[in-house]
Amino acid sequence: MSSLFDFENKTGRYTVMGNPINHSKSPFIHTCFAKQTNQNIEYTATQVDPGGFEQAVGNFQASGGKGLNITVPFKQEAWGLVDERSPRADIAGAVNTILFKPDNTLLGDNTDGVGLVRDLINNHQCGIENKRLLVLGAGGAVRGVLLPLLEQNPALITIANRTIDKAHILAQLYKQHGNILGSHYTDLAGQKFDLIINGTSASLNDQLPPLPDNILMENAWCYDMMYAKDPTVFLRWGIKQKATNTIDGLGMLVEQAAESFYLWRGVRPDTQEVIKAVREQM
Ligand code: ATR
Q: What is the atom index within ligand 1 of the atom nearest the CA of 162?
């Protein structure tokens, strides 16, 4: 009987496709996972030109590839390309992992949200259940994580975005899965949150979303989905606002990779030592 997993003793070939791709840490992370779990895989990075994604996936499959990761700017296109999607990828409108099934059809998943949740809960012991969450941003990065966050039963998720319509559209889309609403940044004043997750791209430009002061509960957490060698401007804001814990998204990066690896290989790597290794490289 054919299996989803490649248990033959052949090298399983995987890649990450994106543009740009040369700074991707995925080849390093998956190579660490493979060594650790004795899996025979090769994982490369593939730069794809705009308009060339579908062809690149077809070529990789035809050449014997087993699956791939997808990063900016092709996650939405990947969603449209696959034959079948996991529920979390379906609602996110974005696919970051493809598995080529034995019948040559493409299964699409999105492992970003589970990566974030595992980093928060398993690596940092940050509870989500019954907590008041504030999620900053309403773009692709946020869409990818809302369902796994809501599955942890927070008391509330407030989505704040500069362009308020996008926050309301997301709240509407996800409201069947939990208590979620959209908000202007200015309306946050006077409210209190246990955990603020920055899913905007502002940190990339060293910018801070327009957050009012004093919106953190006691023992609050600030999590930036971006990561950098030094604390991001959002995490520096959290420290000033007396957050008890400030965390960047490096653990999420490794955890989402681990979930892809599990989908492809049926084996769960130990992420702790790989998070440490990636941190040491920075
Ligand atoms: P991604 O795929 O990384 O989410 P995106 O879809 O372009 O990228 O979304 C970027 C998000 O960051 C948006 O929510 C954007 O807010 P707007 O929708 O109002 O544009 C948010 N963003 C970017 N720079 C920001 C800044 N300086 N302050 C606040 N929000 C910012």
A: 19
